[in-house]
Amino acid sequence: MESSLGFLLVLAIIILSAKAAGYVSLRLHQPAVLGELLMGLLLGPTLVDLFAREPFAHGHVQEATLDLAEMGVIFLMFMAGLETDIADMRHVGGTALLTGTLGVVVPLLLGAAVALAFGFSLASAIFVGLILTATSVSISAQTLMELGLLRSREGLTLLAAAVVDDILVILLLSGYVAVAGESSGGVKLSDLIVIAGRMAVYLVGALLIGSLLFTRLARRVSALPISEGLIALVIVVTLIYAWSAEAIGGMATITGSFLAGLLFAGTPLRQNIEKGIHMITYGLLVPIFFVSVGLRANGRALSGEYLLFTLAIVVMAVLGKMIGCGLGARLRGCPHREALRVGIGMVSRGEVGLIVASVGLSSGFIDEGTFAVMVIVILVTTLLTPVLLRSACRA
């Protein structure tokens, strides 16, 4: 009973502090996620160490909180899929495809190279590079909107390239976790074929089922005299897709939730779904997830060699996107200045970076010190992006 009371209180503290910090961050013209991450760092082992204090110092309290945070990841990726509108971006499709692809490849190689230079194992180094492949253009989109450039060619390229980037990162994450997690002794060709087959069967089956059934299911359930029946259906389907992605496809659970969102986005009830799920996701689950990232990061672990590593990774995080995405836009005919804006606009890591880093920590690919470094990288790139982008657009 005591641990249950502690759980209720810690949820109240986390949600209240997340929203308060997000509000302060917005007032300072920064994204809300930045304040939520910083609040998590303050409440975590870096300063307060909330879970080491009574009445929260029970394993159940921390485990239950982190379980809710995992739900936040799942529904955050569902919302990312639901808000993806590929049709509006088709006329910059070629540029976005090359930009998004190079924006994944270059940071992956640079991040892995730096990690190897600092003595990381190959598996951990590749995962560090994988974290750097993520991007979040919400901050860049807001900056371009303020400057009246969101519907310009570089604005549309940025938005479309971010979609390509997110899809590639999710698939790479799923594939890497499946392959690298098979055995420490290496993976045989037959194992790779089985893994690829499982992933292909899951993806084809999930897409086929969704495209054939989701619209009819959504219409029928919404017509039934059931309280919030449509939202209940969406939650159940999202959880099943997330579960089946790992259990059947050997992929990350977020792949399944992203697919569910993408498929529901094609239904005529998309706006109703978005309204209902948005409240649950951003009112309860996502604040817990963002604060929990800080709660799990120990800034005190950043000492000695980790400080040099942090500086090197921050530099690679910025240069990787600017070079990769900028080069992709340039090769597709964008003028130098537009290509530079696209590259800068893709620098911020945001939510997807946090998700990938969290998967790496829970899967054992990175330790707590490296995780703390990655959280700092995400914070720094979040702060730098609007400053650099405003300068590039006004030049």
Description:
The chain folds into two domains: 2-72, no CATH class; 73-394, Up-down Bundle (Na+/H+ antiporter like fold), CATH 1.20.1530.20. It is 77% helix and 0% strand. It contains 15 helices and no strands. It has helices at residues 2-27, 32-43, 59-82, 93-117, 122-132, 138-146, 153-180, 189-223, 229-247, 253-264, 270-296, 305-331, 336-345, 350-363, 368-394. It is globular. The protein starts with a helix and ends with a helix.
Number of domains: 2
CATH names the topology of the largest domain as Na+/H+ antiporter like fold
Strand portion: under 5%
Characterize the largest beta sheet: strand count, sense, and whether it forms a barrel. none
Find the count of extended strands (DSSP E, 2+ residues): 0
Helix content: over 70%
Top CATH class of the largest domain: Mainly Alpha
**Radius of gyration from the alpha-carbon trace, in angstroms:** 21 Å
Unreliable runs? none
Helix-strand pattern: HHHHHHHHHHHHHHH
Named at the architecture level, the CATH assignment of the largest domain is Up-down Bundle
Q: Roughly how many Å apart are the termini?
A: 61 Å
Mean of pLDDT: 84
Global shape: globular
Number of helices: 15
From the helix content, strand content and strand pairing, which structural class follows? Answer: mainly alpha
